[in-house]
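Intended use. Records like the one below are meant for learning the mapping from a protein sequence to its folded structure. Do not use them to infer anything beyond what is encoded.
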Amino acid sequence: MLPSGCIAGAHEAPASKVRLPHTASWQPVVRPHQAAQRTDRRHVLTDDDIYLFREGTHARLHEHLGCHPRAEGEGARFAVWAPNARSVSVVGDWNGWDGSADPLQPRWDGSGIWEGVVGAARTGQAYKYRIASASGAPVPDKADPFALFAEEPPRTASRVWSLDYAWGDADWMAGRHARNALDAPISIYEVHAGSWRRRADGSHLSWRELAEALVPYVQEMGFTHVELLPVTEHPFYGSWGYQTTGYFAPTARYGTPQDFMYLVDHLHRHGIGVILDWVPSHFPTDAHGLAQFDGTHLYEHADPRQGFHPEWNSSIFNYGRHEVSAFLLSSALFWLERYHVDGLRVDAVASMLYLDYARNDGEWIPNRFGGRENLDAVAFLRRLNEAVYRDHPDTVTIAEESTAWPMVSRPTDVGGLGFGMKWNMGWMHDTLAYAREDPIHRSFHQDKLTFSLWYAFNENFVLPLSHDEVVHGKGSLVGKMPGDDWQKFANLRALFGYMWTHPGKKLLFMGGEFGQRREWTHDGELEWWVAAHPEHGGLRRWVSDLNRAYRSEPALHELDFAAEGFHWIDCSDAQHSVIGFLRRPRAGRPALLVACNFTPVPRTNYTLGVPSSGRWQEILNSDAAIYGGAGWGNLGSVDAMPLPSHGQPWSLTLTLPPLATVILKEGADG
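Structure written out for the chain above:
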């Protein structure tokens, strides 16, 4: 049955390949009506391309495989990898979805790539590949793995498309190396595009509408970067994008690829970086997708002990297959290159690294040395990071890796995986566990608050309070806090204060900044109506001011990944649930003293040692009335006394507000 509106149209057979006598290479025989098309070689695969493809190091396959429109009126070139197919044809709107109309031809070189030119194809038309398997097993029509655009779900066809766009972010691109550097302030606002805000009728914002609304809000809040949950095309909206089928296509739910380019461009032109959540760890088994693409397990392992993910009911990429490695490398670099993205957060790295991830004994296959490490995945991740930093050294890769795998964010030439940064899942779990405790019991759990500093500089860490912590019955961030309403918000302000002053870059999922009360759901939008309430508005202002201090105070970001940037003053006062520490910048700039009181009892005349004399200015206090606090504090500043304390030659006598974080700046009076 033809899709409605499909019209059977004229088609042209692609050029065939024949072996010319007495020659050492293959040459195309071009039919007369194709002569004008022969001069366009931009997307034609060369011998070098095939070599790199087979080697698994080709990082720009998107320039050659997939659908590439030619000059106006000259159709499009198609190329697809299907090595175990008996035949491949392109079916689409222009030929009435007739599998005999536009066959592709196999390349002569044994690469398994089928290619050809379809003269009747036009931009915007839908298409798929019709594949006959060598075994005779039926193969559903397949979407293009390299498609640049797709039909809006639940429809599943690819679309003929090009990526022409006039970018306006040249200034950002020229200077973004400094903004993504390890010593830069990086505070990330994590966003799900479909549920941040919605139109009055409940429908999704378009990419362009999201751009216009998101930019002023992120600027107001002071975040440096936006991280988008996966934007790649996905059939099931409830997967939030983590079940990807289109590794080169932004989802059509919110508009065209150019509309998504506008979002990135608009953020850049207003000084905001863009990080994409990218998922090379697994893919869904939907019939139109990558699973059993040519009638065989092409992208995934055939053995379910290696190729099927029991936790997510999805397929696992065969990282040992070089062509699959090249596919994923190309996807990663594609977003950095064609969409000007500033970084990739790589999802579920732990599931890639361990062969026994989410499996019981007997459900996995050891590596060749008998171990549980996925050596092919390790090699792929190193290759990925080497390619990214080779071609786009001003971007960043970030690993979501939840175990103690060593040197995730260390260079590959010293044995690391090569990521720029890694999410600190240990900090997140321990800190939230501590914050959930009733303050009367926190004295018994001080180690959960302080343990992260024992390993804080083993990796380049991002501190995440992400979407994963506010779904599946976990409740909202403010809902996790104990006590009455005042205490809940005071607890969360104190927690954010500790987070923003702890070594490491920052990430906060949308809604957390104003204390959304219900846990996040992808259906609908955030609880914006509560943000106007005093306690919610105060929390939002606190996060905004934390971001501004984080960006303006070198002590809070310059040495995030160096032990020299942090010094404990006192981490042992478990009886009062108080901690105090210094954050230091590079030499010649003032240090900051941070004190956190995690009980609802104010601590007056509390002594903390400091390294220098003079006046220390209280630059932030989460108990200030403007944040919804009770107004306890230090009247703006405290003079250091020549009384040694905590191993320091001077000391401050402070008032520590209840359930609060205060930050004081060294030598603030000059």
